[in-house]
Specification:
With 257 residues, the protein is mainly beta. The protein is built from one helix and 18 strands. The strands form four sheets. Strands 1-4-5-6-7-8-9-10-11-16-17-18 form a twelve-stranded antiparallel barrel. A two-stranded antiparallel ribbon has the order 2-3. A two-stranded antiparallel sheet has the order 12-15. A hairpin with a 2-residue loop joins strand 4 and strand 5. The N and C termini lie far apart (50 Å).
Length: 257
Protein backbone atom coordinates (compact mmCIF):
# COMPACT_ATOMS: atom_id res chain seq x y z
CA UNK A 1 0.00 0.00 0.00
CA UNK A 2 2.76 2.44 0.97
CA UNK A 3 4.66 1.55 -2.18
CA UNK A 4 1.62 2.45 -4.28
CA UNK A 5 1.26 5.76 -2.44
CA UNK A 6 4.94 6.67 -2.93
CA UNK A 7 4.75 5.57 -6.56
CA UNK A 8 1.70 7.76 -7.12
CA UNK A 9 3.39 10.70 -5.42
CA UNK A 10 6.53 10.20 -7.49
CA UNK A 11 4.51 10.16 -10.72
CA UNK A 12 2.66 13.31 -9.63
CA UNK A 13 5.94 15.09 -8.87
CA UNK A 14 7.40 14.08 -12.24
CA UNK A 15 4.26 15.27 -14.06
CA UNK A 16 4.39 18.58 -12.18
CA UNK A 17 8.09 19.17 -12.78
CA UNK A 18 8.20 18.12 -16.44
CA UNK A 19 6.31 21.16 -17.79
CA UNK A 20 8.45 23.48 -15.67
CA UNK A 21 11.60 21.85 -17.01
CA UNK A 22 10.31 22.26 -20.54
CA UNK A 23 9.48 25.93 -19.94
CA UNK A 24 12.88 26.61 -18.40
CA UNK A 25 14.56 26.29 -21.80
CA UNK A 26 12.77 29.45 -22.93
CA UNK A 27 14.35 32.63 -21.61
CA UNK A 28 12.24 35.35 -20.09
CA UNK A 29 13.14 38.70 -21.64
CA UNK A 30 12.98 41.93 -19.66
CA UNK A 31 13.38 45.58 -20.57
CA UNK A 32 13.49 48.57 -18.24
CA UNK A 33 13.51 52.05 -19.72
CA UNK A 34 13.23 55.69 -18.65
CA UNK A 35 12.61 58.48 -21.19
CA UNK A 36 13.03 62.20 -20.66
CA UNK A 37 11.05 64.09 -23.31
CA UNK A 38 10.71 67.80 -24.02
CA UNK A 39 6.98 67.37 -24.65
CA UNK A 40 4.50 64.55 -24.13
CA UNK A 41 2.79 63.70 -27.43
CA UNK A 42 0.32 60.82 -27.83
CA UNK A 43 -1.29 59.96 -31.17
CA UNK A 44 -1.06 63.54 -32.39
CA UNK A 45 -2.25 65.09 -29.13
CA UNK A 46 -0.14 67.25 -26.83
CA UNK A 47 -0.69 65.92 -23.29
CA UNK A 48 2.02 67.72 -21.32
CA UNK A 49 5.34 69.52 -21.25
CA UNK A 50 8.73 68.18 -20.16
CA UNK A 51 8.03 64.71 -18.80
CA UNK A 52 9.68 61.66 -17.30
CA UNK A 53 8.35 58.39 -18.68
CA UNK A 54 9.42 55.15 -16.95
CA UNK A 55 8.43 51.83 -18.50
CA UNK A 56 9.15 48.12 -18.16
CA UNK A 57 8.30 44.98 -20.11
CA UNK A 58 8.48 41.27 -19.34
CA UNK A 59 7.96 38.83 -22.24
CA UNK A 60 8.03 35.07 -22.61
CA UNK A 61 7.35 33.06 -25.77
CA UNK A 62 5.53 36.03 -27.32
CA UNK A 63 3.32 36.80 -24.32
CA UNK A 64 4.17 40.01 -22.49
CA UNK A 65 3.20 42.33 -19.67
CA UNK A 66 4.27 45.97 -19.63
CA UNK A 67 3.65 49.24 -17.85
CA UNK A 68 4.18 52.84 -18.88
CA UNK A 69 4.08 55.92 -16.68
CA UNK A 70 4.20 59.63 -17.30
CA UNK A 71 4.82 62.44 -14.84
CA UNK A 72 5.40 66.06 -15.72
CA UNK A 73 7.42 68.78 -14.04
CA UNK A 74 4.61 71.32 -14.00
CA UNK A 75 1.91 71.32 -11.33
CA UNK A 76 -0.95 70.95 -13.82
CA UNK A 77 0.66 68.22 -15.92
CA UNK A 78 -1.29 64.94 -15.77
CA UNK A 79 -0.01 61.79 -14.14
CA UNK A 80 -0.50 58.59 -16.12
CA UNK A 81 -0.16 54.85 -15.54
CA UNK A 82 -0.84 52.32 -18.32
CA UNK A 83 -0.80 48.52 -17.95
CA UNK A 84 -0.73 46.23 -20.99
CA UNK A 85 -1.14 42.48 -21.39
CA UNK A 86 -0.58 41.08 -24.87
CA UNK A 87 0.83 38.51 -27.24
CA UNK A 88 2.95 38.82 -30.39
CA UNK A 89 3.12 35.83 -32.73
CA UNK A 90 6.36 34.91 -34.55
CA UNK A 91 4.75 35.78 -37.91
CA UNK A 92 4.02 39.38 -36.81
CA UNK A 93 0.41 39.37 -35.63
CA UNK A 94 -0.13 41.00 -32.22
CA UNK A 95 -3.08 41.40 -29.87
CA UNK A 96 -3.37 43.08 -26.48
CA UNK A 97 -5.42 44.95 -23.90
CA UNK A 98 -4.31 48.17 -22.16
CA UNK A 99 -5.69 49.80 -19.03
CA UNK A 100 -5.14 53.57 -19.29
CA UNK A 101 -5.43 55.78 -16.22
CA UNK A 102 -4.58 59.46 -15.90
CA UNK A 103 -5.36 62.39 -13.66
CA UNK A 104 -7.46 65.39 -14.69
CA UNK A 105 -10.27 63.35 -16.25
CA UNK A 106 -12.44 62.89 -13.16
CA UNK A 107 -13.01 65.07 -10.11
CA UNK A 108 -11.00 63.18 -7.49
CA UNK A 109 -8.34 61.38 -9.57
CA UNK A 110 -8.90 58.05 -7.77
CA UNK A 111 -7.03 55.05 -9.16
CA UNK A 112 -9.09 52.33 -7.46
CA UNK A 113 -12.41 53.61 -8.77
CA UNK A 114 -13.92 51.23 -11.30
CA UNK A 115 -17.53 52.40 -11.30
CA UNK A 116 -18.08 53.05 -14.98
CA UNK A 117 -19.82 56.39 -14.52
CA UNK A 118 -17.01 57.76 -12.33
CA UNK A 119 -13.83 55.92 -13.32
CA UNK A 120 -10.80 57.53 -14.95
CA UNK A 121 -9.76 54.16 -16.38
CA UNK A 122 -10.18 53.24 -20.04
CA UNK A 123 -9.75 49.71 -21.40
CA UNK A 124 -8.49 49.48 -24.97
CA UNK A 125 -8.12 46.48 -27.26
CA UNK A 126 -5.34 46.33 -29.84
CA UNK A 127 -4.95 44.18 -32.96
CA UNK A 128 -2.18 44.60 -35.48
CA UNK A 129 0.52 43.24 -37.73
CA UNK A 130 4.16 44.25 -38.07
CA UNK A 131 7.11 43.23 -40.22
CA UNK A 132 10.40 44.82 -41.26
CA UNK A 133 8.65 46.99 -43.85
CA UNK A 134 5.67 48.39 -41.94
CA UNK A 135 3.43 48.15 -38.89
CA UNK A 136 -0.36 48.46 -39.04
CA UNK A 137 -2.18 48.74 -35.70
CA UNK A 138 -5.80 49.21 -34.71
CA UNK A 139 -6.96 50.36 -31.26
CA UNK A 140 -10.47 50.57 -29.79
CA UNK A 141 -11.52 51.72 -26.29
CA UNK A 142 -14.31 49.38 -25.22
CA UNK A 143 -14.90 50.29 -21.56
CA UNK A 144 -14.45 53.16 -19.13
CA UNK A 145 -14.25 56.92 -19.43
CA UNK A 146 -14.99 57.13 -23.13
CA UNK A 147 -18.44 58.63 -23.63
CA UNK A 148 -20.07 60.40 -26.57
CA UNK A 149 -20.80 64.05 -25.97
CA UNK A 150 -24.22 63.77 -27.64
CA UNK A 151 -25.84 60.93 -25.64
CA UNK A 152 -23.26 59.93 -22.98
CA UNK A 153 -23.05 56.39 -24.36
CA UNK A 154 -19.86 54.40 -24.91
CA UNK A 155 -18.02 55.98 -27.84
CA UNK A 156 -15.71 53.07 -28.72
CA UNK A 157 -13.01 55.54 -29.70
CA UNK A 158 -10.98 53.95 -32.49
CA UNK A 159 -7.54 54.80 -33.82
CA UNK A 160 -5.72 53.18 -36.77
CA UNK A 161 -2.01 53.77 -37.26
CA UNK A 162 0.45 52.94 -40.04
CA UNK A 163 4.20 53.13 -39.37
CA UNK A 164 6.90 52.75 -42.05
CA UNK A 165 10.53 52.47 -40.85
CA UNK A 166 13.65 53.08 -42.94
CA UNK A 167 17.33 53.90 -42.55
CA UNK A 168 18.97 57.05 -43.90
CA UNK A 169 22.27 58.76 -43.12
CA UNK A 170 23.13 56.42 -40.27
CA UNK A 171 19.84 57.10 -38.46
CA UNK A 172 16.66 55.10 -37.96
CA UNK A 173 13.58 56.87 -39.30
CA UNK A 174 9.83 56.35 -38.98
CA UNK A 175 6.98 57.86 -40.95
CA UNK A 176 3.69 57.54 -39.09
CA UNK A 177 0.09 58.32 -39.90
CA UNK A 178 -2.94 57.98 -37.61
CA UNK A 179 -6.63 58.05 -38.48
CA UNK A 180 -9.90 57.84 -36.55
CA UNK A 181 -12.94 56.63 -38.50
CA UNK A 182 -15.66 58.14 -36.31
CA UNK A 183 -16.55 60.46 -33.43
CA UNK A 184 -14.54 59.63 -30.32
CA UNK A 185 -15.22 60.11 -26.62
CA UNK A 186 -15.13 63.55 -25.05
CA UNK A 187 -14.87 65.03 -21.56
CA UNK A 188 -14.33 68.25 -19.67
CA UNK A 189 -11.16 67.83 -17.69
CA UNK A 190 -11.14 71.01 -15.58
CA UNK A 191 -13.13 71.68 -12.39
CA UNK A 192 -13.61 74.89 -10.46
CA UNK A 193 -13.76 75.41 -6.70
CA UNK A 194 -17.54 74.97 -6.54
CA UNK A 195 -17.24 71.51 -8.11
CA UNK A 196 -18.99 72.65 -11.27
CA UNK A 197 -17.27 71.49 -14.41
CA UNK A 198 -16.49 74.06 -17.05
CA UNK A 199 -14.26 74.76 -20.00
CA UNK A 200 -13.83 73.25 -23.46
CA UNK A 201 -14.73 69.71 -24.42
CA UNK A 202 -11.71 67.50 -25.15
CA UNK A 203 -12.16 64.71 -27.67
CA UNK A 204 -10.01 61.62 -27.40
CA UNK A 205 -9.25 62.06 -31.11
CA UNK A 206 -11.88 64.04 -33.06
CA UNK A 207 -15.60 64.71 -33.43
CA UNK A 208 -15.76 62.61 -36.59
CA UNK A 209 -13.63 60.77 -39.13
CA UNK A 210 -10.27 62.54 -39.39
CA UNK A 211 -6.52 62.23 -39.77
CA UNK A 212 -5.18 63.12 -36.34
CA UNK A 213 -1.50 62.21 -36.53
CA UNK A 214 1.21 62.67 -39.15
CA UNK A 215 4.75 62.48 -37.85
CA UNK A 216 8.37 61.89 -38.74
CA UNK A 217 10.83 60.46 -36.20
CA UNK A 218 14.64 60.23 -36.38
CA UNK A 219 16.53 58.21 -33.78
CA UNK A 220 19.93 56.79 -32.93
CA UNK A 221 20.64 54.19 -30.25
CA UNK A 222 24.03 54.35 -28.53
CA UNK A 223 24.90 50.89 -27.21
CA UNK A 224 27.09 50.17 -24.22
CA UNK A 225 27.95 46.97 -22.37
CA UNK A 226 24.90 46.67 -20.12
CA UNK A 227 22.59 49.37 -21.41
CA UNK A 228 21.77 51.58 -24.38
CA UNK A 229 20.84 55.25 -24.81
CA UNK A 230 18.26 55.95 -27.53
CA UNK A 231 18.20 59.59 -28.66
CA UNK A 232 15.40 60.85 -30.90
CA UNK A 233 13.62 63.84 -32.37
CA UNK A 234 10.04 63.93 -33.66
CA UNK A 235 8.11 66.35 -35.86
CA UNK A 236 4.43 65.74 -35.15
CA UNK A 237 1.35 67.31 -36.67
CA UNK A 238 -2.38 66.91 -36.12
CA UNK A 239 -4.22 67.81 -39.37
CA UNK A 240 -7.60 67.68 -37.62
CA UNK A 241 -6.54 70.25 -34.99
CA UNK A 242 -4.28 72.12 -37.47
CA UNK A 243 -1.33 71.96 -35.04
CA UNK A 244 2.33 70.97 -35.34
CA UNK A 245 4.89 70.18 -32.66
CA UNK A 246 8.53 69.19 -32.38
CA UNK A 247 10.03 67.26 -29.49
CA UNK A 248 13.28 65.63 -28.48
CA UNK A 249 13.89 62.75 -26.13
CA UNK A 250 16.65 60.70 -24.55
CA UNK A 251 16.28 57.38 -22.79
CA UNK A 252 18.25 54.94 -20.66
CA UNK A 253 17.39 51.36 -21.58
CA UNK A 254 18.42 48.12 -19.89
CA UNK A 255 17.72 44.72 -21.51
CA UNK A 256 17.88 41.41 -19.60
CA UNK A 257 20.07 42.92 -16.90
Amino acid sequence: MMKKIFRTLAIAVVLAISPLAALAQYDVETTVRADLVSKYMWRGLEKGGISLQPSAKVSWMGAYFSFFGNTGFERNDPEELDLTLGYKAPFGLNVGVTDYWETGITKYDLYFQYKKAETAHRLEGNLGYSCKYFSLQGYCIFWGNDRKRSDNKQAYSTYIELTVPFELGGLDWQIQGGFTPMESGAHQKVFDESDEDYGMWYYTYANGAACVNASLKASKELSFRKFSVPIYAVISSNPYMKTAQILAGVAFKFDNF
